[in-house]
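FORM 7B: Structural annotation worksheet

SECTION A. Query
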Amino acid sequence: MTFFNNLSTLFGAESGEHRHQQSAPQNSNRLKPPFKKDKTRRRRRPRHVKPQKISPQSQKPQITPAMISKQELVREAEAKAREIVVEAKSEALSLRSKAEQETKEMARQLDTQQRKLEQKLDRLDQRLSQMDEREEELEHDRQKVQKVKQELAETKKKLLAKLEKTSGLTKDEAQTQILNTLDKQLTKDKALLIRQKAEEAEAEADEKVKEILIDAMMHGATDYVPEYTVSVVNLPSEDAKGKIIGKNGRNINAFERATGVDVDLDMSPTEVRLSSFDPVRREVARISLERLIKDGRIQPSRVEEVVRKVKTEIDKTTFEAGKKLCHDLGIYNLPIDLMKLIGKFKYRFSYGQNLIAHTLEETKIGIKLASELKLDVNTVKLGCLLHDIGKVSEEEEGSHVELGVKIAKRFNLSQGVIDAIAQHHEDEPFSGPEQMVVYIADAISGARPGARYENYDEYVKRLQSLEEIATQHSIVKQAYAIQAGREVRVILHPEQSKDEDVTVLSTQIRDEIKNKLTYPGTVTVTVIRETRAQEIAK
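SECTION B. Predicted structure
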């Protein structure tokens, strides 16, 4: 930078001098100093010498201060130029020496790297040569091993042929004979071992079963308290009944037609009872009637509008309830329509036990039992979840077991799940241990104390009616209502009946039960005719 700074100084001085020269002629008169006589340098002319007249042409030019300043600037510029040249040379020399040093350092580094690369290449070549030698040795050893194997196989074959020739038996015959001998020798030991294991299993089976069942029931315990409800709507006053009935009964008729329930206004002055076999319809009717009473505008068009809105809300509620139940049990891949059906458990009660609570409890017990017994947990889980799905079916014909099987087939569920639904009341023989676990879990959940509620008098009356319907026939000897009224077992007099009476009488009793009694689920009629002969040998 010194070199360029000096150049700029030089050219700046010259430009200033040039400007000074341009302005000097204009100010020469003002800058010219007054003339002073130099007495020291003046020489006296000799008197004999006459002064000569000097012509204007021979006069020397007069030196002015501007000319003096210009010469001084030139001298200064030359001096600065020399200084700049010297500095530039010194800087060039220093840059050159620095560049030479860097070049030497780079050359040295390149030489070092080249030597390292050459050493690495030498080592790689050495390793490759060693690997080639080892491969050759391995190939040689492999050939030796293969040769030894062939020799051993030939020797074994020769020895086997020699042994077969000596013993007079083939290889398979000798093997069979040895196994038979060992089997005979070990028969007693096997029998003792089997007996010992059987005794140990019998001793531990009861305790183990108790532990498994207790553990399963502990894991399946819920905080649910069973409830038995009736759909009842409380009225603010007796005048509300008149609004519900309407002119000529048009309001109540429109309500019954829209909801599909029967409205009973005669039970209490301030209560309305709603009756329907479908719990979802009954819930829709209850909510709709409460809203109409609160609104006060009860008329056919308003009834239809409110019922339609409530049905939409109930559909969403049932879907969310079914979805929540499935997610609580760890099931996430069921179809939406099936989850909507499961959500109807929210409004369905069986002997006072809510189906959602019952299903949740039963499924937890079944999962625990299946895990302890190393069974298919998914089959048991779905079987417990859907075992009572027929109770919320929209079809009316058939038991809840038959309707549940139809629903399971409609949604293409696995055969194991279908069998669990079909066999959870022992309507069919059990096809596997998973189906038995579903049955056990259902029995534990439904039979525990406090799980279900039923009017004892009505229960006893229904059992007595079942037996009376069967015993009113003259050829019936005895009749028993068993399995909590799910089955009637009828025993005939063998002397007074024929084999054909068994089929005819079972059909008659079935029809009479259907026409005369109201009962949950199904009732199986079993007619038995037995002939015995007994003699005593003396």
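SECTION C. Observations
The chain has a mean pLDDT of 78. The longest strand covers residues 262-268.

SECTION D. Sign-off
Analyst initials: ____
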